[in-house]
Amino acid sequence: MVRHWVPFLNLSLGLFLLGAVAAPTFTALGLEWPGRVLYTLYGFTCHQLPQRSYFLFGPRLVQTYSSDQLLAAGMDPVWPRQFLGSAAMGYKLGLAHRNTAIYSSLMVGGVLYTLLGRLRLGRRWHVSRRRYLAPWLFAVLLMTLDGGSHLMSELTGWGFRVDNAWLRLVTGEALPAPFYVGDGIGSFNWLMRTVTGVLVGLTTVYFVLPILRKELGGQPGAPRPGVTGHGAVVSGTSEMRS
Fold first, then answer.
1. For 230-240, how does the pLDDT look when each residue is reduced to its tens digit (9 = 90+)?
2. What is the phi/psi pair of residue 31, to 5°?
3. Could you give the number of structural domains in the chain?
4. pLDDT at 195 over 90
5. For a FRET experiment, which of 56, 125, 189, 190 has its CA 20 to 30 Å from that of 233?
6. Residue 30 · residue 59 · CB < 8 Å
């Protein structure tokens, strides 16, 4: 298990993402009970707000909807996360935009780490906590600022992250109007959630896996140390000497 901890981690993340897709799949197939069980389980990891989620099996392969569209379709304004979707509009993913980006990039980063390790490039990831902590903290800071500004916008009622009027002033309204408003695919809010989620996922891999590799021993896929006939331990791979 120690030798294969990275593939095991990648497999676990893949199954986790598969479960998020299985929730709307079961619901669309009329298997409401297993679908609701999955939505409930994933609800412990995500807010699952419909206006910030991808919908599957609707008019398009992947689609997003505005709050007004969802309210018209029957979403409860007091408890919006309970709204799963409908046969006409599709059903929401078990994870919202940002969490989808985080877990997807964690898995992609883990796969890349495994491949680079097999190409013997992983040795460049020597463990230096100061070096790896900086980009991770920067990514977390960006995500905190983005999420915190949304929370402040909602709690204060100012709504400055609803229409992003401040961004219109900064850009001189050079971008298409839909970019500034709402949370749909292609909007500024969607872009920031996706980018910050991807950055946190990739930098988490960049920061954590090299440290785990050192603690668990060796690079991913490397053979175990062997024992010679004289009882001396020899490494299955050569080491670079500094």
1. 444 444 444 34
2. -90, 75
3. 2
4. yes
5. 125
6. no
